[in-house]
Amino acid sequence: MTVGFVGLGNMGGVLAANLVATGHDVVAHDALGPQCAPEGSTYAPDVAEVARAADVLVLSLPDGTASEQVARALLATDGRRVRHVVDTSTVGVTAARTVAALLAAEKVGYVDAPVSGGVAGARARTLTVMYAGSDDDCAEVEDVLAGLSDRRHRVGARPGMAQALKLANNFLSATTLAATGEAIAFGLAAGLDMATMLDVLNGSSGRSAATEDKFPRHVLTGRYAAGFTNSLMNKDVQLYLREAEEGAGSIGDAVGALWERFAQVEPGADFTRIYPYVAGS
Question: Which residues of the chain are modeled with pLDDT < 50?
Answer without folding.
Answer: none
